[in-house]
Every structure is written in structure tokens, then in C-alpha cells.
Amino acid sequence: MSAINYDLTKIKSFIFDVDGVLSCQTVTLAEDGQPMRSTNVRDGYAIHHAIRSGLDVAVITGGRSEIVRRRLESLGVRHIYLKSYDKTEQLKEYMDKTGFDPEEIIYVGDDIIDYLVMKKVGLPVAPADACPEIKDISIYVSPVKGGEGVARDVIEQVMKVQGKWMVNDAFFW
Q1: For 137, phi and psi rounded to 5 degrees?
Q2: 123-126 and 79-81: which strand pairing?
Q3: How many CB atoms neighbour CB 150 within 10 A?
Q4: Whole-angstrom Cα distance, residue 12 to residue 128?
Q5: CA gap 19, 84 in Å, rounded
Q6: pLDDT score recorded for residue 63
Q7: Helix (H) or strand (E) holding 5
Q8: Among residues 5, 37, 15, which one has the least CA distance to residue 155?
Q9: How far apart are the first and last CA of the chain?
Q10: Per-residue model confidence as pLDDT tens digits over 140-160
Q11: Which of 76, 109, 163, 166 is deepest in the core (most CB within 10 A)?
Q12: Model pLDDT for residues 63-96, shown as the tens digit of each residue
């Protein structure tokens, strides 16, 4: 049974923001001023497992970090949109490429920049520490904070409902 009040059998795709979702809201700055992010290894496992199980994962972020791109690519993410000014444009491009309908997509966002794109998907999700406006439009507010496993929480619930979580390939990288 899932804590998410939505027909999770419909879900074919997860889209994540990076800062405040796949990484914590705070970042350390390097000497050159670039943000240094941390990521959650359980999020990474869940993303990789979802992709191997036939689900799609995309990232839409205003961030510009090529290190983030490399990390996502190493997990198997093929649709990575960096430097996003208007996330609804990247959502449209993604949907045109993949053929997914809005009700088949989860978008996890945490801040105002995610508001409009979250209004265009079937299942908007917020981490526990998202801003109030994002929580207000979310069908599911995870009890997990951004950067601390919110992607794992959502992916695991979907995959369990779809019978894809504890399967033979779950035990191998």
C-alpha cells in the first residue's frame, strides 16, 4: 500500500529538480564560486533501479553543473535539462520526445521555480522541506527532506505498487 493518493499504476516517468530535491537546500561554495552539491546514495540506487525496470527518469534544473550531469548519466538518466530558465518548455520538449501524457508523470520540486511545471503533470510531489506554495499544489508531500532520500521515497512507492521493487535485478548494480 502506498501513502500517495494517486493511481501509481499509471506512472511511467519521474522528473526531478536538483537543488532542494536531489541535493540539500544548502550548498558549499568552491573557491571559484561554483556550488558543491551532495547527493543521496539511496536516491541514486532508486533512480538506477527504476530505469533498469523500464521507468523513465528526467531532470530539469536551473543549475549548470556538468558534475551533476555526469552523476545523472552514470545512473542511466538520458533526459537531463540544465540551465533551465522556463521549466515548462523543457517539460513540453520531454513529453514530445517520450510521448508521455501528463498523468503518467511525477514531478518533484521544492521551490517557486517549480510551480508552473508542477501544475502541468499528473502527480506533483514536494519534499518535506519545500516552500508552502509548492506543498499547497502537491498531491503528495513526502515526509523526507530534499537531498535526504525524497526520490527514493517516491520511486520505491511507485515500484512497489507496480510490482517492480523486490525483483531479481534489484539485487545487482
Answers
A1: -100, 0
A2: unpaired
A3: 28
A4: 23
A5: 13
A6: 86
A7: none
A8: 15
A9: 26
A10: 999 999 999 999 999 999 999
A11: 109
A12: 888 888 999 999 999 999 999 999 999 999 999 9
